[in-house]
């Protein structure tokens, strides 16, 4: 038996061996020292995930799709490890479950999401003294997990050519905004004129257009907390938006009573209604095909923005701020791609050491 007395009350737990009891005692004492109280770790992971999903998640300002993905991950974890007591949860157990999922065909990206959600739930448990460590933070992903196709980005020359081909087209300003500012497609389509300050050259990302149960919805719950941001616009973006506003004003007059301006969206159909994502994808693929680049996805403009900024020496932290990421990990591993045929970073060393002089 391991027993601790706190504020006149005893808390005890039982084990099969003395060694196990000592480990329990150390865990209980660590909780007391940390000021988080004493936990016997008997709560199951399933109960913790249910509490976290019903108490913590609704209080966060997350997009509906993000909430759905978190709940999906909780469901997978509950199915695989829900009956495991928190005190018995180990990284090895989690890794074995991940290996079985990978063998069944689950992708590496899905396992990354599940590990992230488990880490967040265990952080919640740590703050309440239910566990003393976060096993998810040291979990390795199985090598056999199926990897997604590598992302891609336009080169600087391709991006310039694309903008030239898009010149004077109806959605020219949309492609310009997405390319220069790295907005998600939903963020760009959800922009209202109230979010755009053309005098100061600033765009405020405050909402996103989403397709939920077959219906287009402008939602103020963005993907992450850092997605809500204000971005300085290069002159090319301001110029494109000014021209777009003039064209939209003429279109609105022509449409007359058929114009639906209730949402006051920047980018709309010919009658003021939101753009459907499928039509956006078709329009962009048609544009890239006409530019001789093949079919591209609008989201790849976001990858292009990150890659060009990185190639021009912008620090990862600033790129992550522009993209609205919660850190640099996603920016570095997913969005930044090599767009130069060679890596020239070592030239900095040559300049520093004075070895880049042309030989005579």
Give the key terms.
mainly alpha, 360 residues
Describe this structure as you would to a colleague.
This protein has 360 residues and is mainly α. Helix content is 49%, strand content 8%. It is built from 14 helices and 7 strands. The protein has helices at 18-33, 45-56, 64-81, 91-103, 108-127, 156-166, 172-181, 185-189, 235-255, 277-290, 300-311, 316-323, 328-335, 347-353, and strands spanning 2-6, 9-13, 196-197, 202-205, 208-212, 215-219, 229-232. It has a 3-stranded antiparallel β-sheet, with no helix packed on it. It has a two-stranded antiparallel ribbon with strand order 1-2. The chain has a two-stranded antiparallel sheet with strand order 5-6. The chain is elongated.
Q: How would you concisely characterize the structure shown here?
A:
The protein contains 14 helices and 7 strands. It has helices spanning 18-33, 45-56, 64-81, 91-103, 108-127, 156-166, 172-181, 185-189, 235-255, 277-290, 300-311, 316-323, 328-335, 347-353; strands at residues 2-6, 9-13, 196-197, 202-205, 208-212, 215-219, 229-232. Strands 3-4-7 form a 3-stranded antiparallel beta sheet, with no helix packed on it. Strands 1-2 form a two-stranded antiparallel sheet. A two-stranded antiparallel ribbon has the order 5-6.
